[in-house]
Every structure is written in structure tokens, then in C-alpha cells.
Design a protein that fits this description.
Blueprint: H1 2-12, H2 17-37, H3 40-45, H4 51-58, H5 62-74, E1 78-81, E2 84-87, H6 89-94, H7 104-111, H8 119-125, H9 140-146, H10 158-167, E3 177-181, H11 187-195, E4 200-205, H12 207-220, E5 226-230, E6 243-249, H13 257-270, E7 271-280, H14 290-301, H15 310-319, E8 325-327, E9 333-335, E10 345-346
Parallel strand pairs: 3-4, 3-6, 4-5, 6-7
Antiparallel strand pairs: 1-2, 8-9, 9-10
Helix pairs in contact: 2-7, 4-5, 7-9, 9-12, 10-11, 11-12, 13-15
Length: 347
Amino acid sequence: MVKNVMNSVEKEKPPPQTIDELNEWGYKAAIFRAALELEVWEKVAAGKDTSEQLAATEGWDPFGTRMMLDALCSLRLLNKHDDSYSLVPEAEYYLLPDKPTYRGNFVLTELMWEGNGQLAEAIRTGKRPIYRDFTIGAMADHWVADYAGSWVSPERNVEQFDALWQALDIQPRDGLKVLDVACGPGRKSLSLARRHPGVQVTLLDWPQMLQVAKGVAAALGVEKQVTTIAGDLWTEDYGSNQYDIVWLGNITHFFSPEDNARLLRKSHDALAPGGVVIINSMVRRDGAPSLLWIALWLYATSPCGDAYSFQDYKDMLEDAGFVNIQNVSSQLIKATSPQMDQREYYI
């Protein structure tokens, strides 16, 4: 009888697949982090390509060194032939500190987003951000690292960006003026300029990021169509009644609803009659669990950010005075005015 009960319990036991996968991700992240801190790829590229050489020249534990290098091979971040290790193309492109496409510092910051185990304490107390506030100017170099490679291959995803403007029913034309707030590399707004020589784009961001965006503009051949405003999105003057489009890309999720309404009102003032404001950001939907863990990342790395739902954005727009708001896609929401003297607003 006991045996039958045990057999029944075994048959009903769910597999621990999700838990095992999360545990495995934790191991992989720890290996990656240790290798970045030890600058493994730089040292291997410099000729220290065996575990014995690395351990001897760096004073590392020989056994641990070999185990780490072999583990990196299992993660496809190194190759191994006999006793020698070499860089895979992805590591050579993104993990060598002397290259402009280096992402190591960015990854290290991301791996510490929960404050080395302080997320639970933050949830207990409500004190945030835990590690660093990603919205302040001191984090400019972090975002530059995040966009490493954007200026090297700016044509990447251009067709996708063209499709985005088509989805928004925005056609490039002579005299079209765009303000790209917190522009990053600016590829979306610059892709619009690329489609028509009469489009003028103003890029606003921290000075370090504007250097990246200027490189993208030069590579796309639109630098003569670009002006820049170096500074903070809250303190810089956007001007008034002069832009046809204000682009707010991937920034609203870092701010509170009240701050976003303030940002929308500031954008409204910058727009000419009939202009549009575009917020390109994640829009949380039921059945999209991936955005829920991103929301917790925003909780940890900003004072008041969130992955907002369509209703949240609708409330922000209405608070700023906008009407007729509807979804366009998982990252775009469109609000239009039925009157000729009113404006259209897009998220």
C-alpha cells in the first residue's frame, strides 16, 4: 500500500525545469563576471593562451584558472585546441577593452543591478535605486558602453526603422524638423533623415553620447542635417512651437507617471501645431511575462521607473491634455486629435 502511494506521488511530481534553468543561468553569469573582472580575453589575445601561462604570469591558482577557461569554452566564449585557448569572433569584437565596441564594463554593471544580493532588502524597505541610478549624467559612460558598435555599423536595422516610421504614417519631407530627446546613438531619428535630405534632426543627450550619435550621423551621410543640444533632458530648453516630431525613445520607463506627464508637457510646448510626439518604449501587456522581470530591473536601477501598461500611458497622456489614445504595437501607442487645429500624439 505504501509503495503504491509513493508511486502515485512520483507520477504527480512536476519536473523542476524552470528552477534548474534559473540555477544554471546563475552559474553562467558568475563565470562570465569573474572572467570579465580578470580580463581573460585581453590576456589570451596578448599571447597568454594556456592555463599554465595565465596562472604563472598572473599569480592565479592553476587549477581554478584551467577550470574557468574550460567553462568559458562551454559557454562559447573561448575556443580550445590541444592546450591552447583562443578568442571566438564575438569575444574579439565585444570583450577586448582596447576596442570601441567593448561591452565588458557595461555587462559588469548590469550583472550588479541587484546590488550584489540587496534586492530582497530593497523590497523590504522600499529604498531604491539599489546599485546606481541609470538616469543621471554620471551614468553617461555606461550608456555609451551599452551602445558600443552602434556607430561602427549604423546601417544595421535601417530597414526595421523605415518600417517603424511607415507604421506611424510619418513620411519624410522637405523641412520636417525632429527633436530626439535622450537620443542615444540616434539611429531611429537619423534613419528618417537618411530617407530625405530635407529632414532636419536635433539630437539632445549628454555630451559623451552625442559623440556616438555624431559618428552614426557621419556614417549615414546626414551630418549636415543634424544639430545637437548637449545636456540633461530636464534642464535643457527644447524651444517652443518649432518641431514637427518630438521623439522620446526608451526613456519613459525610467520615470514616474508625474515626471512623464511633465516631459510630455515640455514636448508639447516644443511642437509646432499639427506636430507629433512619439514615445517608443516597452508597453506591458497581459501574457508578456518578460516585461515583468524588466520591471523589477527598473525598480532596482531607477528611483521610480516601471514597465508601464497601455492604461498607464493613457493616463499620463490625458494628464498632459492629450486625447484619442490607441495602441499601435507592443512599443507604440497612438493618440490622435480629430480637429485640424489640434495635434497628434504617438507613443
